[in-house]
Amino acid sequence: MAELLRTHPLEARHPLMAWTAAFARLPATVGITAEPFVAMVDVRLGTVGAEASAALGVDLPTTPNTWVPAGTGRAVWLGPDEWLLTSTSESPEELEARVRAAVLPLGGSATDVSAQRIGLRLTGARVRDVLATGCSIDLHPRVFGRGRSAQTILGQAGIVLLGLSDAGEDFVVLVRSSFAGYLADWLLDAALEFTPTTS
């Protein structure tokens, strides 16, 4: 078996590859795109201050339910002592090693969780309406604009929702990989109500 894997390496396949064509058929008012794989590290750190910010190269958000840009990725507040750091330019191993080296001397920990979640980008004028059919949080742009985040339920799937615009027309949904297909089907079904029909 090991010899077979060396001569025929496993190909990384995005769990939402089969939904690409269905996403492409949606109108611009409800755009859904599967985001590429990104490196993700869960960080636990008891105290956040200048030393942690300098070591990580980012001011970790300390306001609940917020996120900030962090290099080529994001730093998402998950709890009083927990953050999700992402990177589009580092491998999972590189990100985990860099973050672990930064937080270990401060009594923190870093765990690679890259395979845990898949990202879906939701855009368009009706995307808030689609989200509202299965999510109970207030998504009005005055409340949930750029830089806001929430751990919530969408169509019975646990997600992390990130607001990317102040107009309320651009979101990222992070969902567990094992629920990605279910949520993709749910989103496509919910989008039907807000998709114009042609006669």
From TrEMBL:
One Pfam family per UniProt: SoxG
Lineage: superkingdom: Bacteria
Stretch forming the signal peptide: none
InterPro entries noted in UniProt: SoxG, TrmE/GcvT-like
Coiled-coil stretches noted in the UniProt entry, renumbered to this chain: none
This protein's name: Sarcosine oxidase subunit gamma
Species of the source: Geodermatophilus sabuli
